[in-house]
Amino acid sequence: MAKPRRNVKFAHRSQMGMSSSNEFGGRRGSMSSAASDDMGAQMSPSRLVPEQNNVDVKEEPRLSEYEKKKQTFITRTIWTLAMIGIFFGSMAAGHLYIVAIVTVVQVMTFKEIIAIANVPSREKKLQFTKSLNWYFLAATMYFLYGESVIYYFKHILLVDAFLLPLATHHRFISFILYIIGFVFFVGSLKKGQYKFQFTQFAWSHMALFLVVVQAHFILNNIFEGMIWFFMPASLVITNDIFAYICGITFGRTQLIKISPKKTVEGFVGAWGCTVLFGMFMTNILMRYKYFICPVKDLGANVWTGLECTPNPVFLKHTYNIPFFLQPVLGRTVDIEPMQFHILAMATFASLVAPFGGFFASGLKRTFKIKDFGDLVPGHGGMTDRMDCQFIMGFFAYLYYQSFIAVHSATVGSVLEMAVNSLTPQEQVEVLERLGRYLVGQGIIQEKVVECMNGVLSSPPA
User: What reactions does this protein catalyze (predicted)?
Assistant: First the structure.
């Protein structure tokens, strides 16, 4: 067998190398470059047609960084204005529309969080994982929404023959619904996938606690009065805006490593701006009963209004001024206690609620994602917008119940006690004695009581 000869030059390869050298600015040709040119000639469509038929295709100019930022800013601004319009429009339309918005928000947020962990379940082809997540969401919402509706609307539910059993046995029904899902989960465990399935189970329950449970308290804030929903939400939004403005204006010191763009100067500056906004806006809203009255009719709106006896925090109180401030402010000052409460809420919205956003940032870094979704153009997913709102709404509810709420007997609480604690005979006795009391007070006529007693004493048909 003949051995290959080395250092032998072939004419045609030398010519191709020279042509390649001329074409690319005088570089020396080589066998590899010639071969690559030859392959390029075979593969390139432009080499397969006559040269005179070649048409120059003009590429669209790439956008500069400035243009990209400009487009992003315009998109964010448009959608921000749209969301603000929907928010204020729903608030004017009535409490029921705000409840619907909160419901949609919590469902979309739950979906985005669960979607992070749902990718492996598709790869492993495990059945019912996604269905169970949605089942537990439905069971949890049934329990929490039912608790709120029963608490705030006892006077309606406890006098309806169909709704009464659902109201009196609500917690047991909710427990049975959860147990059904729990048993189904255990029955769906697959050998070799135990660790993954229990991880999914824990992940879904974490999402239920962080999203659905906290959103439940936001619903309670709505029922207590529109101001207890609007002010916490607006404080978080205001703090976010001024943290950005103060940060880009005079921010120098990094606040936290997990969110590198946050600065100490922006953090503190936003605190002061949020406090001022809260005191200003509260002074306006507490003048309108539509905002300060608890809701008893879900059909109410800004045009029909609401009527109630205002909570004492919305009425002016006289406070003594410390002696060292008396030369400036006088001996006393008249101010609504709500102004002091909003100071505490604004402080929480500025110093604590942002850590809900930092928690979300850490979660995104863990799964190496930029946003939780793309539901809102220019803003990312719903979770990216609501990461601070849930914890703020939870705090507002607990603060209201601890320091502001006036606990007194209501028609609903009296009915609940009568229905759950008294026998039918005792309930009739209460009705008769209440009738005699109303006659004695001159509220109703005695004929009404006599007619009622006659109907009650007659045997049922």
Answer: a 1,2-diacyl-sn-glycero-3-phosphate + CTP + H(+) = a CDP-1,2-diacyl-sn-glycerol + diphosphate
| Three state DSSP letters for the chain | CCCCCCCCCCHHHHHHHHHHHHHCCCCCCCHHHHHHHHHHHHHCHHHHCCHHHCCCCCCCCCCCHHHHHHHHHHHHHHHHHHHHHHHHHHHHHCHHHHHHHHHHHHHHHHHHHHHHHHHHHHHHCCCCHHHHHHHHHHHHHHHHHHHHHHHHCHHHHCCCCCHHHHHHCHHHHHHHHHHHHHHHHHHCCCCCCHHHHHHHHHHHHHHHHHHHHHHHHHHHHHHHCHHHHHHHHHHHHHHHHHHHHHHHHHCCCEEECCEEEEEHHHHHHHHHHHHHHHHHHHHHHCCCHHHHCCCCCCCCCCCCCCCCCCCHHHCCEEEECCCCCHHHHCCEEEECCHHHHHHHHHHHHHHCCHHHHHHHHHHHHHHCCCCCCCCECCCECHHHHHCCHHHHHHHHHHHHHHHCCCCCCCHHHHHHHHHHHCCHHHHHHHHHHHHHHHHHCCCCCHHHHHHHHHHHHCCCC
Spatial CB neighbours of 393, under 8 Å, sequence gap ≥ 6: 214, 215, 217, 218, 221, 229, 232, 233
pTM for the predicted model, two decimal places = 0.75
Residue 138, token pair as written in the block = 């439905």
> In angstroms, how far is CA 36 from the centroid of its own chain?
57
Mean pLDDT (whole number) for 345-356: 95
pLDDT of 2 over the 80 cut: no
CA 444 to chain centre: 49
Confidence of residue 27 (pLDDT cuts 50, 70, 90): very low
Q: What is the mean pLDDT of the chain?
A: 81
What digits encode the pLDDT tens for the residues 259-295?
A: 888 899 999 999 999 999 999 999 999 999 999 999 8
CA distances 374 to 103, 158, 370, 383, Å, are: 19, 44, 10, 10
- Does the pLDDT of residue 52 top 70, yes or no? no
